Amino acid sequence: MVPEDFEREAELMRPMLLSAARGYLGNADDAEDAVQEVLVKLWSMVDTLRRPVAPLAKVLVRNFCIDRLRRRRVTVSVDETEPQTITADSTDNDMFERMMKIIDTLPAAQQVVLRLRHIDGMDMDEIAKLTGYKEANVRKILSRARMAVRKHYIEELDDE
Question: What would the pLDDT profile of 61-74 be if each residue is shown by its tens digit?
Fold first, then answer.
């Protein structure tokens, strides 16, 4: 594709890409940035592009927006949080103790993966590297552990 053709197509598909990016990101400025990044990426591939470019551009915008959303992590400084006092009769403390007892009954692999993910806050790839499992296996183990904890927790509530 010649650069002039790309410029014309980019002008025509830009509003559509902006709309899609706004739908994902919810912010006009972030959407503008996403579309600009995708158009720059497409410009770098202008020699190898073929018509129609719009489907490829849509996929690139979607993937870029999803990546941006995944990277947005809410972080709270420890200094900003208020210390919580937990009393012996606190329902939160009781629920925490109940959950920890349920987790202790799980198989070792499920315990490790569940604790690394939810208590230590590690990502799936970090857990996979640490445990030696493949990332898909870590996801499967975590899913099974969550289902087992949920099942045991519901059974305990029904017994009360």
Answer: 999 988 888 887 65
Return the domain boundaries, the chain: 3-71, 91-154
Half-sphere exposure of 90 toward its Cβ, with a 13 Å CA cutoff? 9
Same fold across 3-71 and 91-154: no
Contact 97, 52 (CB under 8 A): no
Averaged pLDDT score across all residues of the chain: 84
Torsion of CA 28, 30, 35, 37, to 10 degrees: 160
Q: Is the pLDDT of residue 82 over 60?
A: no
Using the predicted structure, report yes or no on whether residue 80 has a pLDDT greater than 80: no
Please state which architecture CATH assigns to domain 3-71.
Orthogonal Bundle (1.10)
The CATH classification number of 91-154 equals 1.10.10.10
